[in-house]
Design a protein that fits this description.
It is built from 16 helices and 17 strands. The radius of gyration is 24 Å and the shape is globular. By secondary structure, it is an alpha/beta fold. The strands form 4 sheets. It has a 7-stranded parallel beta sheet, sandwiched between helices. Helix 2 packs antiparallel against helix 4 and helix 2 (38-53) runs antiparallel to helix 5 (130-141). It folds into 2 domains: 11-223 and 441-452, 3-Layer(aba) Sandwich (Aldehyde Dehydrogenase, Chain A, domain 1); 228-413, Aldehyde Dehydrogenase, Chain A, domain 2. 42% of the residues lie in helices and 18% in strands. This is Sulfoacetaldehyde dehydrogenase. GO terms for molecular function: oxidoreductase activity, acting on the aldehyde or oxo group of donors, NAD or NADP as acceptor. Pfam families: Aldedh (PF00171).
């Protein structure tokens, strides 16, 4: 896969030439792939999945990602590389995406799926292997081609996984150029040129990239920031809740946008909940330790890249926490109320959880809204409860796309084997988050649909049926 233009070109011209070459390759590959039936398409999707799911590759990619980005931990990334891919493949093998995909005699509408074209998949440093494969699987399911734009920090990992995907495509007799990656050096200008050239942009990660995608003039799907608050009410199974919160918060050192960032605990079970969290590795920081974390985790108003997503002992040592904190799995800082000016209200990308005490569900609602106003509106919230009505209330009153009930948030928000959400690594937040989608990114976002419209028996109600009740109540 050679995209290197002549050295005599200046920087801007070279970037334009690189993108032009990638686009020629992608469109040629799509022409070769356009006759694929559903079986052949699904074979291609399976090939991409195996590119990362194969155990040796899953580990190698995880190790390179942690080595290069310094974010997360190897065991979690191995699980992310395999579990997300397996779940996504399960979902994709159960749906149609080629030719006629539905026929509704009632409406007389028959739907035909067609490609959207060449997709730019902008991917983050937090998931430099799993996210490119996830997006490529969606794109290929729609018989599209995809060009991956990696983060600079994740370039080596993303390039390697793209090489594996290309090799698997060749192995089954399909063009490797269905999946390509931007060459080094990757920069904003190169990514911006790609955004202008393709037919669809799908962005995960930097909110600056999301904004650039939406202003590029190309149809785009971008997702908002996470900052997940989770409620524990007085009817929750506290031990179960604590175990799930611990497993979720510590997964990949809290790099996921679905990782819990705050806990809102009902007053009647506040102390008991903290005890349960201590039993699973939580460390409640003193006032002085909280200040040490604040000064260390944020530098010049921004998250400190030398601290985020690090192992717990590293964070404890860097923040000068007490010796007892060295054995903790995650850290709890208590706040009296939701303060928009407090950094602890924001997303932390670290093993730090902000804890709030709430007097009742009215107070819970107020605190959730306060947190999400700072960051994370539209994304998701969670609740641990034995009272389903409380979960229903959150779904009715909080402006988020997902409300998870009694689940480990990181493992359920992007699809789980025990919930019905689509497996994905890209979660839309609706217009609340400035996004164009309000569900989990999935294969349907990579399809154009043609509607064949048949005539049906007339369905025209009388004026009385439509206006009668209104006119009898309010008059003409």
């Amino acid at each position: 896969m050679s995209t290197s233009p002549p050295r005599s070109l200046d920087a801007g011209a070279r970037e334009t030439a690189v993108i032009a070459a990638l686009m020629v390759n992608a469109r040629a590959a799509m022409v070769e792939f356009q006759s694929a039936d559903q079986s052949r398409t699904d074979e291609a999707v399976t090939a991409l999945a195996w590119a990362i799911y194969e155990p040796d590759r899953a580990r190698e990619l995880a190790e390179i990602a942690v080595e290069d980005t310094g974010l997360g931990n190897v065991d979690s990334k191995i699980l992310k590389n395999t579990r997300k891919t397996f779940g996504c493949l399960r979902d994709l093998m159960r749906v149609k995406s080629v030719g006629q995909i539905s026929d509704d005699p009632t409406t007389g509408i028959i739907k035909y799926a067609k490609p959207v074209g060449v997709v730019a998949a902008v991917t983050p440093s937090t998931n430099p292997a799993a996210t490119p494969v996830n997006k490529a699987m969606f794109a290929i399911k729609g018989r599209n081609a995809v060009i991956v734009a990696p983060s600079p920090a994740g370039l080596r990992t993303t390039t390697r996984v793209v090489e594996y995907m290309r090799a698997e495509l060749v192995k089954i007799g399909l063009p490797a150029d269905l999946v390509q990656v931007l060459p080094s050096p990757v920069n904003k200008t190169l990514t911006q040129e790609l955004m202008k050239a393709v037919d669809l942009i799908v962005v995960t990660g930097s909110q600056n990239n999301v904004k650039r995608a939406y202003s590029s003039g190309t149809p785009a799907i971008g997702v908002g920031a996470g900052n997940v608050p989770v409620v524990i009410d007085e009817t929750a199974d506290l031990r179960d809740a604590a175990q799930k919160i611990s497993a979720s918060k510590t997964f990949d050192n809290a790099t996921s946008c679905s990782s819990e960032n705050s806990l809102v605990i009902l007053d009647s079970v506040y102390d008991a909940t903290l005890d349960a969290l201590r039993e699973v590795g939580g460390y409640v920081c003193s006032v002085d330790e909280k200040e040490d974390i604040r000064k260390t985790l944020w530098q010049d108003g921004h998250l400190n890249r030398h601290v985020i997503a690090k192992d717990a002992p590293v964070l404890a040592k860097t923040c000068n926490l007490a010796p007892a904190a060295q054995n903790a799995a995650f850290f709890l800082v208590e706040e009296d109320d939701v303060d928009p000016c407090s950094k602890f209200t924001d997303e932390k990308l670290s093993l730090v959880l902000t804890v709030y005490r709430a007097s009742d569900m009215e107070d819970v609602i107020a605190k959730l809204n306060g947190i999400l106003k700072v960051c994370g509106k539209g994304h998701s919230v969670g609740i641990h409860t034995g009272t389903p009505e409380n979960a229903t209330r959150l779904a009715e009153e909080i402006d988020v796309v997902r409300v998870l009930e009694n689940q480990a948030h990181t493992f359920g928000n992007g699809g789980g084997f025990d919930n019905g959400l689509n497996f994905t690594l890209t979660m839309g937040g609706g217009t609340w988050a400035g996004n164009s989608i309000s569900d989990n990114l999935n294969y349907t976002h990579f399809l154009n649909i043609t509607h064949l419209v048949k005539t049906i028996p007339g369905d025209k109600p009388s004026e009385e049926e439509l206006f009668g009740e209104y006119l009898s109540k309010y008059g003409a």
